[in-house]
């Protein structure tokens, strides 16, 4: 069974921001592997933090000289400044129960079977701001888990793209492509009209 690096949505108003990037991880310090850069196959560097459960995978299984598909959560303050949190590593062979003949298999083909591709992000949340001049939108994401510490509670993502002002406060699902440090809108769907009426 091929494990999807970006799981299916479990309920209609599920907030999320998750993506997959192929690249190598370079820690700032060989003693502390949890902070560093993800370098994609074009040589672009993105500031990256490795979260707890991915860190033990990194220590045990990952060869830092090799490229992997990293499952990441994006954060940004603007469209020039992307920051990633590594939640997992998608390697159908090493980390799943797959016949280990990865030399013959094309990972990007496997991703296509799952309707995914390198640098794809799925973002679901409330459209809270539209800047028609700059062609930017802001999506608010509220993690469902109450266990998260408070400072992680809500965050906003700035995305390059155009949506109508009429969609403000709607819950939207976006397909995003990463281009350098920018997240670019490729497709959107309105999931629920005006959330402000429900509050």
Secondary-structure map:
Layout: E1 16-29, E2 32-40, E3 45-50, H1 52-61, E4 68-76, E5 82-90, H2 107-113, E6 120-131, E7 136-141, E8 155-160, E9 171-179, E10 182-192
Parallel strand pairs: 3-5
Antiparallel strand pairs: 1-2, 1-4, 1-6, 2-3, 4-5, 6-7, 6-9, 7-8, 9-10
Short note summarizing the structure:
The protein has 199 residues and is mainly β.
Description:
It is a single chain. The chain folds into 2 domains: 16-118, OB fold (Dihydrolipoamide Acetyltransferase, E2P), CATH 2.40.50; 122-197, OB fold (Dihydrolipoamide Acetyltransferase, E2P). It is 9% helix and 46% strand. It contains 2 helices and 10 strands; from the N terminus they run E-E-E-H-E-E-H-E-E-E-E-E. The longest helix has 10 residues, at 52-61. The chain is globular. The chain starts with 15 loop residues before the first strand and ends in a 7-residue tail after the last strand.
Core attributes:
OB fold (Dihydrolipoamide Acetyltransferase, E2P), mainly beta, 199 residues, 46% strand, single chain
């Amino acid at each position: 069974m091929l494990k999807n690096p970006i799981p299916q949505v479990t309920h209609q108003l599920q907030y999320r921001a998750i993506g997959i990037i192929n690249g190598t991880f370079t820690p700032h310090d060989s003693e502390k592997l949890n902070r560093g850069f993800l370098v994609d196959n074009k040589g672009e560097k993105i500031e990256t933090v490795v979260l707890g459960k991915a860190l033990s995978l990194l220590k045990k299984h990952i060869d830092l000289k090799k490229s992997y598909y990293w499952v990441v959560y994006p954060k940004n303050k603007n469209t020039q400044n992307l920051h990633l949190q590594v939640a997992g590593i998608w390697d159908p062979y090493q980390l799943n129960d797959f016949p280990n003949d990865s030399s013959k298999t094309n990972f990007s083909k496997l991703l296509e079977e799952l309707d995914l591709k390198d640098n794809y992000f799925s973002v679901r949340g409330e459209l809270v701001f539209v800047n028609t001049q700059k062609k930017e939108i802001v999506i608010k994401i509220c993690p469902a888990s109450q266990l998260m510490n408070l400072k992680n509670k809500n965050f906003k993502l700035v995305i390059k793209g155009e949506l109508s002002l009429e969609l403000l406060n709607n819950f939207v699902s976006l397909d995003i492509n990463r281009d350098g440090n920018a997240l670019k809108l490729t497709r959107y769907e309105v999931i629920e009209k005006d959330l402000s009426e429900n509050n």
